[in-house]
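Annex B. Sample input.
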Amino acid sequence: WPLRPGTAKCVWRHPPGDEIYRKGNISFFEVDGAKNKAYCQNLCLLAKLFLDHKTLYFDVEPFLFYVMTDADAEGCHIVGYFSKEKNSFLNYNVSCILTLPPYQRQGYGRMLIDFSYLLSKVEGKSGSPEKPLSDLGLISYRSYWKSVVLDYLRRFQGKGISIKDLSQETAISAYDIVSTLQSLGMLKYWKGRHLVLRNYVNTETPESSSSKVKKVRHDRTLDPECLRWKPYTMPNR
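Annex B, continued. Sample output.
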C-alpha cells in the first residue's frame, strides 16, 4: 500500500465515533459528520475516486456515517461505508454507499446494505437508498431486494400477502418491493388491488441457482443481537 509510510505518525487504529456492532473481525462505527467533520469529508473525497455521481464533499454535518471495518493485529481496516441523513423527510436510509475495490465481490457490499435495513427496522420504518445509484450499486440493491423478498415469501405460511406486510417485515420501501415483484413477474393488478403471485417462489432458474452458490461462497451475514444502537434524535433548539 502506498499509504503505509504515512501511517507511522497516526496513532488511531479504528475510525472515530461509536462502535455499534461487532461480531468476529467485523465492526460498524457510527460517525457524526458534525463531530468528526474532517474525517467524514475525507471519506467523501475517497468515495469520489470510485463514484462518478458523488457530489457531497464538505457539507457533512447533516449526515451520519456508518463505517464497516475488518480487524486484525494492526487495527480496524475500512471495508466500506454508507452515509445517512440525520433527518430524511423522504425516508432515505442511505445517501451514499461504497465498498472499497479490494473488498468488492466478497459479500461485504450486501452486508452494508443489510446493515442499513437493520437500522431501519430498529427505527420502526421502511427505507430506500437515495437515487441515483451507481451501476454497481443498482445491481447490488436489486440483487438484495430480490433475495430478501423471495426468502420472505418462501417462509410465509399465511393465505394473503400484502405489500404493506412485506415492507413492514423487511424494512424495504413499498415502492422498491413493487418494482422488485414486477421485475420478477410476480405482481398482478386485479380489481383495483395488487396481488402477489407466489407460484414463482418455487420455480428454480439458472440465475437463482448460481446466486445461491455465490451466497454460500461468501456467507457474510449480520447478527442483530450484536447491534448496540439507538436511533439518532435531533437536538432541541
